[in-house]
Recover the amino acids of this structure.
């Protein structure tokens, strides 16, 4: 588990929030808790941690009790043990850990929103724990099975990291660790609408660099993507074959500049996975909550409060 003193320096980004570390099975999960009202679990993605919510969390906290964890293997949360089939880094395992976290906090049912890898954990949670998830929001993703099955030449160039990070240990780890700050900056900038870092708070960027630039963080993320190629894809395929769908009302928000499909294409795709789905877009690249916080809130609040 990483320990970074700059977490304390981020308190002004999350006014009124407290930080906690909770033991869940063999995992120690770091989280921020704040706000009041119905419970909303926010799950971050790659290559970030819970700080990615800093632009919208203060507003959401006026309406909801927010739970902002670092995913297992990210930020200050501990790292799952490696296993041959990547089961411990699967979205099923991560979703189960977060459900246990919510039970420790005495939240039996709750709203869930996730971005990037966190959205994959979120929709897996909605499939595996339908009794827990009241509503689901996925920010800028295509479901894992569809991502792999649709991997034509242009998509492979645009989403090269899916193949790169899933390569066997230690190839991607060694290449990234040669200059982790450069890799992180390049990744975030190349996925943003502006193709630079102008939309991102410098303090948040400094934090992302500090937390990312360790061997255990880079390895944890690679294991996450290896699970995406292996067990996560298998679980999605099994669900589709069995006709399982997400029962919770679902909102998908995409940034058209992020290379995901347009809202109509996304709507058709997500209808295969959800019983009740609405797909919308905001003027952003991949990091919708940081690039277009007001537009994102304008979609989130009516959906979550209705």
């Amino acid at each position: 588990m990483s320990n970074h003193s700059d977490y304390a320096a981020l308190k002004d980004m999350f006014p009124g929030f407290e930080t906690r570390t909770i033991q869940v099975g063999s995992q120690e999960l770091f989280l921020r808790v704040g706000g009041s009202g119905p419970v909303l679990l926010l799950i971050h993605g790659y290559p970030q941690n819970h700080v990615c919510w800093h632009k919208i969390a203060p507003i959401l906290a006026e309406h909801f009790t927010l739970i902002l964890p670092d995913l297992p293997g990210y930020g200050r949360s501990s790292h799952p043990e490696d296993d041959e089939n990547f089961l411990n880094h699967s979205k099923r395992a991560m979703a189960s850990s977060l459900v246990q976290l919510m039970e420790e906090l005495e939240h039996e049912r709750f709203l869930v929103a996730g971005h990037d890898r966190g959205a994959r954990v979120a929709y897996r949670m909605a499939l595996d724990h339908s009794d827990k998830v009241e509503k689901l929001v996925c920010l800028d993703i295509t479901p894992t099975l569809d991502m792999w099955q649709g991997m034509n030449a242009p998509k492979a160039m645009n989403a090269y990291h899916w193949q790169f990070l899933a390569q066997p240990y230690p190839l991607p780890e060694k290449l990234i660790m040669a200059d982790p700050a450069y890799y992180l900056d390049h990744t975030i900038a190349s996925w943003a609408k502006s193709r630079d870092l102008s939309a991102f708070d410098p303090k948040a960027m400094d934090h992302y660099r500090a937390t990312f630039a360790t061997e255990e963080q880079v390895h944890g993320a690679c294991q996450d993507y290896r699970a995406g190629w292996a067990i996560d894809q298998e679980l999605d395929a099994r669900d589709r074959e069995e006709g399982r769908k997400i029962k919770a009302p679902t909102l998908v928000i995409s940034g058209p500049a992020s290379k995901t499909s347009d809202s109509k294409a996304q709507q058709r795709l997500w209808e295969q996975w959800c019983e009740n789905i609405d797909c919308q877009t905001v003027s952003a690249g991949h990091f919708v909550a940081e690039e277009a916080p007001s537009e994102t809130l304008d979609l989130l609040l009516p959906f979550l409060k209705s």
Observations:
- The CA atoms of residues 48 and 208 lie 6 Å apart.
- The longest strand covers residues 27-35.
- Residues 6-305 form a domain with the Rossmann fold fold (CATH 3.40.50.1820).
